[in-house]
Predict the structure.
Amino acid sequence: MQKENVIGSVDQGGFKIIHEGFEFARALIAVISAATALKSISNGAEYMKSRIAFGSPIAKFQGLQFQLADDVARMEAALTMGYRALWTYDQEQRHGKFSRFQVSREVAIAKLISTTWAFEAINDAMQWQGAYGYSKDCPPEEWALRGIRSFLLAEGSREVMKTIIARETLGREYIR
Ligand SMILES: Cc1cc2nc3c(=O)[nH]c(=O)nc-3n(C[C@H](O)[C@H](O)[C@H](O)COP(=O)(O)OP(=O)(O)OC[C@H]3O[C@@H](n4cnc5c(N)ncnc54)[C@H](O)[C@@H]3O)c2cc1C
């Protein structure tokens, strides 16, 4: 091993460094997912206002309004959780105010919730845009859905996030 290639110190801290990178990336993914979903919702809302069916803009149909309201509320909450996860990470890194496990828990909750809800919200936004939303003439939603889908795996899968949350709730002796 070449001395100049060592990151951190030998036999110490490599796993910690990798984990810190994972946690930062997971918190960023939570924020990115929420922001992407909010943009898709906004695209869908514009379409709803312009599309006339049964004599009125489809935005006036309560069934669609309620879906939109749920998606807006969830994604605003997810965005806040993403920022909270980043704040917790920052406090641990700079001031040692939280333990690594507390950071892992906050970040796992934010990533799990934000990616899961974002995927659903973008799928809803595509649905509001009917066949146009599915077509290749409407690439933003297709890219958003595929991009967010990757976040259910990348930087720790959805199942791994649940395992972390369960571990921090039940205790590590209950995790295989
Ligand atoms: C867009 C993208 C970018 C990526 N970037 C990187 C990168 O930069 N570097 C890198 O190293 N990797 C990267 N990955 C890989 C990513 O981390 C893995 O895809 C992910 O960890 C899942 O591993 P796997 O694909 O081998 O699935 P598998 O290990 O085969 O798992 C399949 C499924 O089983 C679930 N599963 C596995 N074990 C358990 C268990 N014990 N309990 C419950 N469920 C379980 C998994 O969550 C998953 O849903 C990336 C993946 C994607 C999609």
Remarks:
- The chain has a mean pLDDT of 94.
- The chain has one domain: 28-174.
- The radius of gyration is 20 Å.
- The CA atoms of residues 33 and 115 lie 6 Å apart.
